[in-house]
Amino acid sequence: MPIDDASSPRVPLADVTPPIALGPLDGRYRPTVAPLVDHLSEAALNRARVEVEVEWVIHLTSHAVVPGAPALAPDEERYLRDVVATFGADEIAELAEIERTTVHDVKAVEYFLKRRIAAAPEALRPDTVLPQVNELVHFALTSEDVNNLSYALMVRGAVREVWFPAAVALSDEVAALAAEHAAVPMLALTHGQPATPTTLGKEIAVLAHRLRRQLRRIASDEYLGKLNGATGTYGAHLAAVPDADWQMVSRTFVEHLGLTWNPLTTQIESHDWQAELYADVARFNRVLHNLATDVWTYISRGVFTQIPVAGATGSSTMPHKVNPIRFENAEANLEISCALLDTLASTLVTSRLQRDLTDSTTQRNIGPAFGHSLLAIDNVRRGLRALSVDEELLARELDGNWEVLGEAVQSAMRAASVAGVAGMDNPYERLKELTRGRRLTAQDMREFVDGLGLPAETTERLRNLSPATYTGLATALVAHLE
């Protein structure tokens, strides 16, 4: 019999106080991703807008761009910058109240800052000149002049101060794991089949090397900004102050903010730099996803054992299980992050003619894109710290697969043939006949080598070779991470 919803009313969860998060990043996973709130939240966007507006007023007055505008004293500049520094819960609420009237977020920021300027004589000193620069707030700007600079500052802060340090710490931990196990021999699996042995450290080092390469790309990515008016022509700027070198004013302001000046745009900054950055971060995610799936497979194979956490439950019904949940969680979050980053990168590079608003709502999802990546990084780091290597299992696997030496033997036969040793015909085919689809013992391989007629030195070298010692330069290769 179906449940009758009408007969069993429920508490409306949407009305619960404090509010319940709709998404997991602001709910279950909030502690891990909280540092991004300071950079990529709606409140952070408004604070960045206030910062851009404040710095624009200071820039115009300190460079005497607008005739008649007074120069600001140090305490007046400090007063304006304190509006940014003290931006908190009360200011967020005040801005929201203003926006309910303006129904325009950037205009609300303009009015908010003008309120602070109007209050300067009482808050700072009666003879302050700040009220005289009231109309320099948002002077000759379009909303996108403020927004593009704000987003560049926000994303740069989120990457450099939160995401990138976490990603570097992860790559360093992966590199340390590689160095620790650089000399631990391991049976390789290509196509899931026993293959030329390697070392566990070398295989981990490959992933660390890949992660670090992507981080170098991300570290060199540019953050662009523009300030040139409603259609990128400086029309309003020249109409108001025709004698100013507005391109120089714009460039010096954007560079003052620590951004790269984009001289040629429509109303919007073209967002190509964002697409480039998000593609690089997505590529880092995908390499990390590869690490997570490889470690998961090593755990499944028994190469890694997981150190149980006291009190933790692996399965609701199977008490013995220690599930690789950190790596599974990371996989899922990396996939979500990449989907968002890919969408951001593909959507933001297109704008209809001089402007449309698709980028406005799209950019509000930058936070979740980085949040899911940061959550995955945290999970992988936690997971790696709980791993232990079963070297006995690795030794048993190697000793059970002597046929992998077939490659070494046929290669030695080829070299001997080139050197003129007789009887070295068809080396690959002879080893294929010996080894394919068969399990060989050490004795089987050594008897075969003894009967080949190789030079004594070569015979001795191959007789002393074992799957555990057939790792080539694997141990030494890990040093490339240093």
Automatic annotation (TrEMBL):
Annotated function: Catalyzes two reactions in de novo purine nucleotide biosynthesis. Catalyzes the breakdown of 5-aminoimidazole- (N-succinylocarboxamide) ribotide (SAICAR or 2-[5-amino-1-(5-phospho-beta-D-ribosyl)imidazole-4-carboxamido]succinate) to 5-aminoimidazole-4-carboxamide ribotide (AICAR or 5-amino-1-(5-phospho-beta-D-ribosyl)imidazole-4-carboxamide) and fumarate, and of adenylosuccinate (ADS or N(6)-(1,2-dicarboxyethyl)-AMP) to adenosine monophosphate (AMP) and fumarate.
UniProt keyword annotations, A-Z: Lyase, Purine biosynthesis
Enzyme Commission designation: 4.3.2.2
Domain Fumarate lyase N-terminal, residue spans: 27-330
Assigned protein family: Belongs to the lyase 1 family. Adenylosuccinate lyase subfamily.
Gene (UniProt): purB
Pathway field: Purine metabolism; IMP biosynthesis via de novo pathway; 5-amino-1-(5-phospho-D-ribosyl)imidazole-4-carboxamide from 5-amino-1-(5-phospho-D-ribosyl)imidazole-4-carboxylate: step 2/2; Purine metabolism; AMP biosynthesis via de novo pathway; AMP from IMP: step 2/2
Protein name: Adenylosuccinate lyase
Entry-linked InterPro entries: Fumarase/histidase_N, Fumarate_lyase_CS, Fumarate_lyase_fam, Fumarate_lyase_N, L-Aspartase-like, Pur_lyase, PurB_bact, PurB_C
GO molecular function: lyase activity
Superkingdom assignment: Bacteria
NCBIfam families with a match to the protein in the record: PRK09285.1, purB
Boundaries of every Adenylosuccinate lyase PurB C-terminal domain copy: 351-471
SUPFAM superfamilies: L-aspartase-like
Organism lineage string: Bacteria, Bacillati, Actinomycetota, Actinomycetes, Micrococcales
Catalyzed reactions: N(6)-(1,2-dicarboxyethyl)-AMP = fumarate + AMP; (2S)-2-[5-amino-1-(5-phospho-beta-D-ribosyl)imidazole-4-carboxamido]succinate = 5-amino-1-(5-phospho-beta-D-ribosyl)imidazole-4-carboxamide + fumarate
Enzyme class: lyase
